[in-house]
Amino acid sequence: MTAATSPATNRTDLKPVLVFDSGIGGLTVLREARVLMPERGFIYVADDAGFPYGGWEEGALQERIIALFARLLAEQAPELCIIACNTAFTLAGAALREAFPDMTFVGTVPAIKPAAERTRSGLVSVLATPGTVKRAYTRDLIQSFASQCHVRLVGSENLARMAEAYIRGEPVSEEAVKAEILPCFIEKDGRRTDIVVLACTHYPFMANLFRKYAPWPVDWLDPAEAIARQARRLVPFVRDALQHPEDQDFAIFTSGNPDFATRRLMQGFGLRA
Ligand code: DGL
Question: Which reaction does it catalyse (predicted)?
Answer without folding.
Answer: L-glutamate = D-glutamate
